[in-house]
């Protein structure tokens, strides 16, 4: 088995990293690490997202977000305001980091995910075959036409789904070990 990871892991946002549609559930009255939905309930990432982001970053993987939301400003704002706590087992004295700092590229706007990935490819120069995409919508499997590896996440990335690093271990021969 290969010991390579993909060069780029791309995450959809809505119902993949958090449990809502940013364009229908969130208002623009938010503060650092306190993003509220339209009912004034706090929103956050699914439980395991911080650990997933840290593990993949530690492994040297590049990140991008690809979202077809009709509220790109709110999505970017949420990523800028939500804080990712340090890894539990790191022993580090570092504080939380803005979620947006984990992402090397953001493609957040309405339209086909094919457009998002064509732009990622053009901007980053990473071959499609080196991209792994997590999304909750089956229709976005269309990116496989480009050579992107697609993983459908039906209930968000949390304890109800396989950890993305485990998926990376299995998909296209990539492995952490």
Automatic annotation (TrEMBL):
Pfam families cross-referenced by the UniProt entry: Acid_PPase
Gene Ontology MF: a single term: acid phosphatase activity
Gene3D superfamilies attached to this UniProt entry: HAD superfamily/HAD-like
Record-linked CDD domains: HAD_MDP-1_like (cd07501)
Highest rank taxon of the organism: Eukaryota
Name of this chain's protein: Magnesium-dependent phosphatase-1
Species whose genome carries this gene: Lentinula raphanica
